[in-house]
């Protein structure tokens, strides 16, 4: 089973940008679908973006037009480019396969002035 490790979070002002990375311990080429999830304090974990092996993407309405998911199979890494960040985007962000298996530690994203 491939282990996934998130990185790239931090503190950013509203309107700013961040790029998250999800590094895999092995090849992701054979993984059919991967995604980024997030969990805000006091809320349930939600799926925000997915990408298939063929490159088809899907976004939650709350991030559509602001977030871009991508994957580099050669580097065994998935990314989430986040732009025009809002305070409501504050959460711990996780990457996982679909359907989700074991969860990593995630990476904290805080949007605040």
Topology of this protein?
Layout: E1 4-7, E2 10-12, E3 18-24, E4 33-39, E5 46-52, E6 57-59, E7 67-72, E8 77-82, E9 91-97, E10 107-111
Parallel strand pairs: 2-10
Antiparallel strand pairs: 1-3, 3-8, 4-5, 4-9, 5-6, 7-8, 9-10
Describe this structure in words.
This protein is mainly β. It contains no helices and ten strands. The chain has strands at 4-7, 10-12, 18-24, 33-39, 46-52, 57-59, 67-72, 77-82, 91-97, 107-111. A hairpin with a 4-residue loop joins strand 5 and strand 6. The model has no long low-confidence stretch (mean pLDDT 95).
Keywords:
single chain; 113 residues; mainly beta; four-stranded antiparallel β-sheet
Brief overview, please?
This protein has no helices and ten strands. It is an all-beta fold and 113 residues long.
**Structure classification:** mainly beta
Largest sheet: 6 strands, mixed
| Poorly predicted sequence stretches spanning 5 or more consecutive residues | none
What is the string of SSEs from the N terminus onward? EEEEEEEEEE
Q: Radius of gyration in whole Å, from Cα?
A: 13 Å
What coarse outline follows from CA principal-axis ratios? globular
Strand order of the largest sheet: 2-10-9-4-5-6
For the termini, the CA-CA separation is: 40 Å
Helix content: under 10%
DSSP summary: helix tally? 0
Mean pLDDT: 95
How many strand units? 10
Strand content: over 45%
